[in-house]
Design brief:
Elements: H1 26-39, H2 44-49, H3 53-67, H4 75-89, H5 92-106, H6 109-118, H7 126-140, H8 150-155, H9 160-182, H10 190-193
Helix pairs in contact: 4-5, 4-6, 4-7, 4-9, 5-6, 7-9
Pfam families: CMD
InterPro entries: AhpD-like, AhpD_core, CMD-like, Uncharacterised_peroxidase-rel
Protein name: Alkyl hydroperoxide reductase AhpD
Length: 196
């Protein structure tokens, strides 16, 4: 580490300076306040990405639509995919935060932790395993993905809407993992104990 570099630690959540409440748009402040009221803390990803407030809000709107609204996949399935993609990308922030969400939705912390470490050793249904295989392939070897990769998904019951949502969740986490990893986002301490 050079003298100009510093390790992200307990007092830093990003490689970039994090804006204060007075440096972000009002809509960002409102989102931070809503998070604080709903979950008891502001996710560090909300603070760190707010360097560019309007871009953060655009990201959040799509992320929120894919992960927090009623969708074509279940909450467990979407969080499972999030954790598989984040583990493949070795994204600390998203593995920890979405591992917590998977524990919460599934009610099974041991299974969720197994997914984060090696989904192949987790107790998954055939449908979940097929989605995990597809998510990992699209994440690590996108140039190898063909139409034939949809056949196993259809065989375990995914319809066109579910396949589209699956692909969108995989894409969202590949984007978010890269932003989080590139800028050294640190997960909130609260995530580590959630769902245990």
């Amino acid at each position: 580490m050079t003298t100009t570099e510093s390790k992200v630690g307990a007092d830093r959540i990003s490689f970039l300076p994090v804006p204060s409440d007075t440096q972000v748009p009002e809509a960002v402040r409102k989102l931070w306040a809503k998070a604080e009221a709903n979950i008891g803390f502001v996710p560090n990803v909300f603070r760190a990405q707010a360097v560019n407030g309007e871009q953060f809000l655009a990201w959040w709107n799509y992320f929120n639509l894919l992960l927090n609204k009623e969708g074509f996949l279940s909450n467990v399935e979407r969080e499972l995919v999030a954790v598989v993609v984040s583990a493949a990308n070795r994204c600390l922030y998203c593995e920890v935060s979405h591992g917590a969400a998977l524990r919460g939705y599934s009610g099974d912390p041991m299974r969720a932790d197994a997914v984060a470490v090696n989904w192949r050793q987790a107790d998954l249904t055939e449908r979940e395993r097929t989605m995990a295989e597809y998510a990992e392939k699209l994440t690590l070897r996108p140039a190898e993905v063909t139409e034939a990769d949809l056949t196993p998904l259809r065989a375990v019951g995914l319809d066109d809407h579910q396949i589209m949502e699956l692909v969108q969740v995989i894409g969202m986490f590949n984007l978010t993992n890269r932003v989080s990893s590139a800028l050294g986002f640190v997960p909130n301490a609260e995530y580590y104990s959630q769902g245990r």
